[in-house]
Amino acid sequence: DVHTGGRKLAGVLTEARSGRDRLQLAVVGIGLNVNQDPREFPGDLVNTASSLNIATGSTYRRSAVLANVLRELDAVYSDLDPGHIRALWREASTMWGNPVRVACGDTAVQGIAEDLSPEGALCLRTPDGEVTTVRVGDVGNVADSPHTREA
Fold first, then answer.
1. Please, which residues have CB within 8 angstroms of residue 137's CB and are 6 or more apart in sequence?
2. Bridge partners of 101?
3. In which element (H, E) is residue 94 found?
4. Residues in Cβ contact with 14 at an 8 Å cutoff, skipping those fewer than 6 apart
5. What is the per-residue pLDDT for 127?
6. What is Dmax (Cα atoms) for the chain?
């Protein structure tokens, strides 16, 4: 998720399907609130959602925003080295050192977000002091439980 002023501005949703020993497919979607006014959000989101318009006080052409997002994605995709992607993710995320809850179906694990494994799994230090890796799940602040935000 991308937050500004403590409110969610954008999010990325990933879905993947794997076979016996390999990834079969992955789908990535990006949602970005561009010109919404605070009154346009449903009641349950009015205090937690934001938009570029709310954050900056300006109105944007969605086609120009899309072009900029695609240009930035192209720059990232020019170097798909896992170490590079991991470094970008580590630099951009604010979850490191904070308590998080990861939910996957009916199960959940809580801990301190410490790192990403070389494969991209989230490394959590659980309350018993063990470090566990989590490959799939919805990540949220412990304070937000039981509701989670998409990772």
1. 102, 103, 104, 108, 109, 151
2. 110, 140
3. none
4. 26, 27, 28, 29, 151
5. 92
6. 50
Interatomic CA distance for residues 59 and 51, integer angstroms: 10
The one-letter amino acid code at 65 reads V
Contact in structure between 132 and 93 (CB atoms under 8 Å): no
What is the 8-class DSSP label of residue 79? -
**Averaged pLDDT for residues 89-106:** 87
| 63 or 24, greater pLDDT | 63
CA distances from 84 to 45, 57, 129, 148 (A): 34, 34, 29, 28
Determine if the pTM surpasses 0.90: no
